[in-house]
Amino acid sequence: MYSVEKPLSAMAEVIQAWKQADGLMRSRIELAMLAVDRALQENPFRCSESREADARILMNSPLVVLFSVDVIEQTVRFIRAWIYQRQTTE
Fold it and tell me: Could you tell me if residue 90 is inside a domain?
């Protein structure tokens, strides 16, 4: 099982979005974070896609997390996390 490190600098955009969000969006952010934490703890490679420079990305609406994995230390470290809104087309 991997440990997940979330430095405040990596979480700044999510924290700001959460502060500005209404109750429904806050709940969505919190549920997405719980799901992301669980998935990364279990197997960060199965639930994510590779990016350049050994970074990986995981999307769980409305949350996106860019992170690195230290296999030897069994640690996932957030590089950046942010909120995205799906655009609907009518």
Answer: no
Q: What global pTM score does this model have?
A: 0.88
Question: How many independent structural domains does the chain possess?
Answer: 1
Distance set, CA 3 to CA 20, 43, 77 (Å): 29, 10, 8
Residue 29 structural domain: 3-83
- Interval 8-56: pLDDT, tens: 999 999 999 999 999 999 999 999 999 999 999 999 999 899 998 889 9
Residue 55 near residue 77 (C-beta atoms within 8 A): no
Q: Are 82 and 9 in contact (CB under 8 A)?
A: no
Residue 50 and residue 44: Cα distance in Å, rounded? 10
CATH number at residue 65: 3.30.2310.20
Residue 49: CB atoms within 10 A of its CB come to 10
